[in-house]
Amino acid sequence: MIAGTMGGIYLLLILVGLLAGFDAGGVVNTLRAATVYAAGYGMLVLALNLHWGYTGLFNIGVAGFMAVGTYTTAILSAAPSTEPGFGLGLPLGVAVIGGMLAAALLGVLTALPALRLRADYLAIVTVALSEIIRLGIKSRPLAEFTLLGTTVGTGGGRGISYPAPNRFGSWALETVPGGGAVYDVGAAVGVARPVIEGVVYMFLLIASAAAFWVFLVRVGNSPFGRVLKAIREDELVASSLGKDTRRFKLIVFAVGCALMGLAGYLWLGRSGFVNDLSFRPNITFFVFVALIIGGAGSNTGSILGGMVFSSVLFYFPQFVSQNFSPGGVAPRNFVAALDGVGAFGAYALQNISAIRFMLIGIVLVYLMQNRPQGLLGHRTESAAAIDLLDRDAGMRADGGAPDTASRPDRQGEDGE
Q: What's the confidence (pLDDT) of residue 318?
């Protein structure tokens, strides 16, 4: 399903790119950009699905935890003399781990008081915290301060520069034997060197999204994951069975926030520069829309939702606007645009940002009315180790007792 969906998106982009007169380099760069969006949103939706789809934790501060992970990684890895922003100059691997730990710690500190109240209070706390983080990043006290005798800081509104993770592409091609020949092949077909390096980093993002998926599938199928799904279905029942639901929620919230921090760094921070504008509240809204499209509770649905939202609803309208916007002056308002098809088309292409939000709203309304579970929400995993709805399938043809020889009649054989 994932390969087929992305293949259809690629085909659509290739056809539109050829209509726009793209050469091979333009087509490759278009597919690379769409894939980067899909992988970035896929990682974020998977992390949010761990909170909302698996455990029922209403976290609407995704952008804030992304900012903490990205900025912590940037400060730890940036050179001490870098401007804007100042860092400690630590190795990149140490900085990435530090960013994940910072996001996880903030998640625990956020959830610790909020989880003692009703679930909607967690939503209020996280959305407020997200804006506090964003405004704090651009504040003067955090723009430059002293830590352990070293000047560090976020750079305030100017942002912060640090070693770009997308340099992985040039490093890989220069390190792998024969990697330099890829540049020659690309030049022969009209694909520039930066595009080739971007494609290599794109594969790193795809591998990261795949690692997220594998990790969360294993979590969901584990005894720990079944407790999370039990909490989602009925926390009182899970607690009555002897589970410390508060401890489980704290752990899963920390893990999800750490993944959001890592995804933010790999995706939004890939160019080696980031500022507060990258973490506005609309990022959280977009991630939730992608989760709704894919279906909460399904890891595969999370990937599909991220791909469909980012490539079809977010990137594709902008791509069409940039390459097919007509010359001249478009109608000034919507009423004037109703004079004809041409006028409306010109108005739509030059106001694609606003119309894109309208399109997202229409899709959400349609889903809520016709398929509220999303594309794969019907595959939401249950808390049971076996499918309790299919237990009658083991009944004998004569209406006797269930056939227990071929399947266990109780849980507990795998430690839970």
A: 86
